[in-house]
Input
Amino acid sequence: MNSLTAVDQHNSIARLQQLADVPAAAGFRGFLQGMSAPWLGLKVMWLRPHLWKYAVVPTLINMGITVVALLAMLVMATGFVGLTHWWVSGWQGYWFWVGVGVEILGALLMVMVCIAAAVITWRLLSGLLCGYFYGRLASQMEIDLGLPAAEQRELSLRYEFRDTAVDLFWLLISLAVSLVVGLIPIIGPPVALAYSLYYQVLSCGRDKLAFPLALRAVRRADRIVFCREH
Output
């Protein structure tokens, strides 16, 4: 009952090709087009229900990792803020206001550190635990689009570990830059937040494009160039 007829199969493949052949827009329209990629992915999954078996496991794993990372961040931040408040609670006079400033700055700094720790944990575990399933999903998607499995490069666990390690290294560099910029009075925190969000969006886009490109044996340096152009 769930199987597709020949006509349905042809129509779904034609619609799939139509979705895949949407030209890339430029400027801000291109940014909005990229942000709508998850919605486009859901459309593809709706057209090709057999793909869900490759998507359910990484989705559940990602949800679990996200919940654990957020809870850990909340516990760490709450504990540090409570410790800072206890430390400055006895200060009097002029030092009272110094203590208030220390408490506020300490809380902001700890929140940034906790967010960084949560992001690192999420990216590391997501890359190691979900990479295999993302690769399977991308491979099946490419088969549906016309790229035979025989022409695809197999994505090994070694590839997943290496790629995750490199991504994590650059993520640490990005977070370190954000942390340093965030220490600049007044303008630092909003600039650091904007830069961090930009890097995360760019990084997520690169992650999703990495799988179909890696299946075509495109080198990492060339994948980065491709992502910048698209």
Observations:
- The chain is about 80% helix and 0% strand.
- Helices lie at 6-20, 27-35, 37-47, 52-88, 94-145, 157-182, 188-215, 220-229.
- Confidence is low (pLDDT under 50) at residues 1-13.
- The first helix runs from residue 6 to 20.
